[in-house]
Structures are given as C-alpha cells and as structure tokens.
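dumping these here so i dont lose them again. two proteins, back to back, each one seq then structure tokens. dont judge the mess
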Amino acid sequence: ESLQYLHDLSIFYTLQHISTALNVARILKK
C-alpha cells in the first residue's frame, strides 16, 4: 500500500516538475 502511495507521489512530482519547466520555457521565450 505504501508502495502505491510512493508511486503516485513520484508521478505527482514529475508532473509538477514538467509543468514548472513548461512555465519557465514560456517565460524565457518572451
């Protein structure tokens, strides 16, 4: 059960990281 939790957590952090990277890229483009 805790393994599933860690799996979901890592996916969440990965998505957060990707969205942050996209925002930074968008800002740098301007």
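---- next one ----
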Amino acid sequence: MTSEQMRVSYTPDGDTIRCWRTVGQAAAEVRVRLAYIDAPEIGNPQTTAYAVSARAYLRRLLALGEVVDVRIVGQDLYGRILAEVIRIRDGGNCGLRLIHGGYAALWQCPRSRGEYYAAQEIAQRKRLGIWRTPGPWQTPWLYRGRAATMSHDPLDYPASRYLLYALIGLIGGLVARLQYWAGGEIPHCWRCALFRLGVDLLTSGFCGVLTLWLSAEFGLSGVMTAFLAGISGHMGSRALFLVERILQRRLQRLGEK
C-alpha cells in the first residue's frame, strides 16, 4: 500500500472524490474511489435520497481544499484510484465513518479488515441509514452492474452530453424570443435583431449546461433534467428581454433630458 497527500477539489458522490496531487507531486487532478465501500447510486431513482445523504456526509467529512492522506490499494475498471482516505487533522478514516453511519455498504472488503465489518454490524444493529429498511440501497453494486456505472461527476460527462443540453436550453430560449417577436417586439434594425438573437441563444445555451451541472447535485433523472434545461433556457431569454426593456427606458429618459 502506497500513500500520498492530496488536496480535495470536489466530491461528486458518496464514495468518490476528486483530488489535486499538489503535495510533493506534479500538479494533476485525479479521481479517488474509496476502497472497500459502496454508497447508493445517485442515478437510481429508488436510492437517490440515500445517495444524496451519503454525498452530503462525505462533504462534511472532507472540506474543499483539505489535505488528506490517500492510501492507495489499487485502481478500478474506470481508471479511478482505489484508496482509503484519511483525514490528516484527526486521523479519521472516511470510508470507515461512512460504513459506521449507515451511509454505505461493504464491497470487496477483505476479511482481514475486521474494523470495517465491525462498523457495518453496528450500523445494521442500530438500523442506521441504508439499514433502516430493506431495499436496493443496501446493495448498490447490483444497480451499478445493470447501469454500467455512468459517472455522476459533471467533469466526466462527454462533450456530446453538454452539447445536447445546451441545444435543449437554446431551443427554450429561441421559443421565448420568437414569442416576443410575434408580439411585435421586433427591432427595426436587422443587425440589432441578429445581435440580440445571438446573445439570447448563448445565454439560453449556458442555462441548459448549468441545469446539467445542477442535476448532478440533486440527482435528477435525465427526463427531468431535459425538461428543466428547456425551461431555464426559456427563462434566461425572458430575463434578457426584461433587461433590454429597462435599458431602453433609461436611454429614452436620458434622451428626453
């Protein structure tokens, strides 16, 4: 087992963190999967509440920018470092605390690591977290096997996914702009009309991408995320139109003076 000190940069779910190898290493961001544990999957509608709870607890354990001791035990199929993550400030084992609190279940843990099994037995006996009632949240690896483990870290999303949600937001913004033009709000100058349309589409596309990021935080389904991306693009366009109206009125008042 090798050990490195890394700085926490992001926590996408209840058993994964992103870290910077900036302490005694060349700067590089890596993904670290907590060894021996498995937290409920955010992408599974049945387990989202437990998954969000596990992520929130891990974020409380590890502050952004905190330096931790990463004790590497291997690498998983998705290129992530498998490691025990230890808080330097108090020596706390984050994976073990997740197990002890009922936020995660043991997964591929060797019998020699008796402290993990003891922690899970305590959580089960006290019916904490995922052990409160039987359900798929107690066996997250089964869902992951069926779902082929799609990452819920926005930084791992392919460019095509960003483009898709930008397009959805753009369509929402275009609908709003066409509604305004249909109501007689068409600029007399065609250059002004094209400029406003361009700014409008950029804003609504950005709103669609922002919605994709927020969906990862709240564990929303793909259908709900697409719906909200269109709505956010539409509302972004409407907000721009209101700003235009306010600026026009102020310019008119200045002209009258």
